[in-house]
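A favour, since you know our structure tokens better than I do. Could you add the entry underneath, on a fresh line?
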Amino acid sequence: MISPEERRRREQAVRFARNSVRLEGFILSEEAEALNQRYIDGELTRAEYNAAIFALAGLPGSRNSWGMATLNNPTRVMNTSQTS
């Protein structure tokens, strides 16, 4: 069980990430959104969430030179449908 404060922090982080990819013209897949909700609900730790997102993208998990997560095959996590 996570605290209400942790849940709010997770909701804000997911909302920020979702809006960030939308600015790039992508929409998260239903599978990615389901993982987002499980993370927000406290069913997944941060490490489990990251591993699940990497697995969804077909990656074991990789990082760029700044230590940031990278997706070499983002099409399984996002689609190119434009939002209205």
